[in-house]
Fold this protein.
Amino acid sequence: MSEEKQCQCAEIQEEELYPRLEEVINQHRGKGEDLIMVLHKAQNLFGYLPRRAQEMVAEGLNVSLNEVYGVITFYNFFSTVPQGRNSVKICLGTACYVRGSQEVLDKAQKELGIKVGGTTEDRRYSLDVVRCIGACGLAPAMLVNEDVYGRVKSPHLVDILKKYE
Amino acid sequence: MNLVRNHVLISIDAGTIMAGARAVEKALVDEIGKQGLAGEIAVLETGSIGATGQGVVIVVYPEGLYYANVAPEDAHEIVEEHLLKGRPVKRLMMTEMPKQQVIRKGKTGLLKEQPRIVLKNSGVINPENIDEYIAAGGYEAIERAFTELKPAGVIKEVKDSGLVGRGGAAFTTGMKWDFASRAPGQPKYIICNADEGEPGTFKDRLILEGDPHKLIEGMMLAAYAFGGSKGFIYIRGEYALSIERLEKAIQQARDYGILGDNILESGFSFDLAVMKGAGAYVCGEETALIESLEGKRGHPRNKPPYPVTEGLWGKPTVVNNVETLANVPEIIRHGAAWYRGYGTEKCPGTKVYTIIGNVATPGLIEAEMGTTLRDIIYEYAGGIKAGKQFKGALVGGAAGAFLGPEMLDAQMDFVNLREYAAVLGSGAILVMDEHTDIVDMLQSVLHFFKHESCGHCVPCRLGTKELVEIIDQIADGKGKAGDIEKMVKISEVMRDTSFCPLGQSLNLPISSALKYFKDEVYGRVPAAV
């Protein structure tokens, strides 16, 4: 029951965001060259890019939906599925890889019970891999939202994750 | 007003923030206030001091003493012992100082160390204050350009300096500007490529965080030289602090009339915008970057036409790397002859390296072109960690080359390394000690390329997939006879037929791994022996 309620909540909130997306689009109306910038802003609003938002952006910027979708799927940053409240990204760049980031990733998948690209059922975490976040001196590194963690060993992982509700 | 007798500089960059620099800064300020020293001691924020992996780093001037791994609880001891009583806190002192100088090759004694060029202000000034940049000689170059050199003079000076692009391709910067200045069409654009995605490279981020105005001045000089009127900084979306500092710096420059219309009454108008990338390695390639700036998928374009004639929105466009542009203000200030005093005949100047992996002090260094790998590892980075042996280095990022011990004394510059079939690339040096597994390294590199191949051309899209399948088998101990030869063959086809440098450059890590570590790689394929 409470689960269902939560779900509706999320949808209602999403509904409220569309007028704000409209405002963003208005500042870039007809300017196809601003597509990536607008998508950045849209994803900031929703946490991902729902189909309806994609359609609004396509129409507002006067580009085809096909092109919008093409751009979204090309860049790592954009996502078409809902993300968890906290985005966990583990660096598999060369420097981190040699310092054992694969182990950290394995541990994270096991702890969260999801695969790379997945989101936990309670929408608390999403798990992804990144290639180099420029923290090579602190390898292996991971990101939770905007926070960078360095020298992550798999035993620390649980403590780090716990901090994020 | 009291005279400030001590300045405490605290390094605020992505790495130290993560280690808790803000909390340390607050603790220091509080403690200084508590001990009644507020008027005498100033705490200032600065960019990266050049040491990474050492927690929160602070420097106390005038002594020039470095403390590493400082925690908020240490503030009391530092303030009371050092700042009040003048007794340095030994337990926090940095044992290996980051090199804030360029070590001159072949020079000894006092001449050996000289001020840096690109990183001159990083870790010295407050990057969020335009006045500090100006006090350090900033925006003098643009003044000299306006009053003395004029556009043609700027191009000549940069050409004479022998500056080549620091992003990896090493094209002569002055030539690029010259082409753009002659190209018909208006407006003309300058783009700064700050989409630093080469694994193991974070030099541009630290330049941007430590000295954003230097980049702005470099871009102004470029635009003034070839007739550009609008600039874009294409930057990785992940570089939140760099973006924040750049935007602040741009606003300050506008407020001072250094950006905008009719700058300093010169008749030259120029403005800048920051554009966030969205995470695609291939966008480091200049035409892919331009596509992305236009709001499209970042697929590389056919060349020619080159961007200098048909770039952003079909107009003449110069794309330069952050480090390249950061060299320009000093060249214009001091002249080409001065710049040629650094580096080698064919490659003047310095190079900023990010040195990582199994070294004692990983971090950011600036070394003269032509410095040997041995000096970089042993003079600048404190040697191999924990007294282990040097096995090899991956130089130039993932698209770079593995180098074995026999290459330790090779002079590192763009031209010289090319003769050894190696590249300097973006300047990433990943040092490996005796325990590193080459096959494992190669596997990681190939996986990276498979992930980042943009899918535009067949050789790269399919080749990277094939290569990953083979290396996974080898790493698993299931390699078959002929696998290694097949990898070489595939990478050669990719080198010759791929559309852009991403696919073309994969041959380098494979062939170099086999050149220097042949026995080890073959040893992993039992069937081949």
Summary: Residues 54 and 76 of chain A are 16 Å apart (CA to CA). The beta strands of chain A are 86-91, 125-130, 142-144, 147-149.
